[in-house]
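Form 7-S
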Amino acid sequence: MCIYQNYISFSFFNSFIKCQQNLGFNFINNSIIRGITTKDSKHFHVNVLGCNNFTFDGFKVSTPGDSANTDGIHIGRSTGVNVLNTDIATGDDCVSLGDGSRQVLVQNVKCGPGHGISIGSLGKYKEEESVDGITVKGCTLKGTTNGVRIKTWPNEPGTITVTNMRFEDITMDNVMNPIIIDQEYCPWNQCSKQVFSSLLSINAHIAIIILVTKYFVHQDNLES
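Output:
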């Protein structure tokens, strides 16, 4: 199901507007989504594009951990999006923030299984917009492959900035990679890794405060 408040015919958005996800919210303002469960999507569960002052509260995502490309909530080119009091079990990122995400709050989210909470991937396309004002706080990640992650493509066509990020009071239980900054994100060898990404241009204060209160490493990992 895709929901539009206004339709804008930008060629860059064509790939996003296709209804391959369970729920698509496009160009919607001043709205709250509360008490909804989405299950077993074929692709992203939720795609948020071009929205302003948009909140998820008491939302739930349910998909097996081996389901590829089933991001829980993906946000792009939106301002003032809040993801609150939400449980996400999926086979990809629990919450992913694409280009143009501004003033986003992710709070009291339970993630697992899944790939954690990600900014990106960024830098694959020239037209991408900067990311600013991202706060992730009071979240719990359990049994995920990653904790919090920033991922950018190498050999990107343009440069954008990622600024004013804050991660705080994050609890991680049995998380394989708690913190990752990946400047060579290139799934399925879709790009060249001859040079590192120069995309992540930081021009403002960034405070990353991670409280890992429950991180367990299995004994077999220590021996390998």
